[in-house]
Write a structure and sequence with these properties.
Elements: E1 7-8, H1 19-27, E2 31-34, E3 39-45, E4 51-59, E5 62-70
Parallel strand pairs: 1-5
Antiparallel strand pairs: 2-3, 3-4, 4-5
Length: 77
């Protein structure tokens, strides 16, 4: 991705995903889904190759990761 990396908000750690894994999954995303007008869910690998879902929003004029967890089947179709 050509954009600046997003900031990672505290809420993204709720499911135990490390900040560096969330950023890695965003940077190497293989797919993206618009889940609302404000949120895009990216699907990408963590540093070990496990697929994660990463929720990103526009937050105070920059991108922010607000959600990170192992990718659920509905995003792996």
């Amino acid at each position: 991705m050509d954009a600046e990396p997003p900031i990672v908000l505290h809420s993204a750690a709720r499911h135990g995903v490390a900040e560096q894994d969330a950023l890695h999954a965003w940077a190497f995303a293989m797919d993206a889904y618009h889940v609302s007008d404000a949120t895009v869910m990216y699907i990408g690998p963590d540093r070990a190759g496990n697929l994660l879902e990463i929720g990103v929003v526009d937050w105070h004029e920059e991108l922010a990761i607000v959600h990170a967890m192992r990718a659920r089947p509905k995003f792996l179709r």
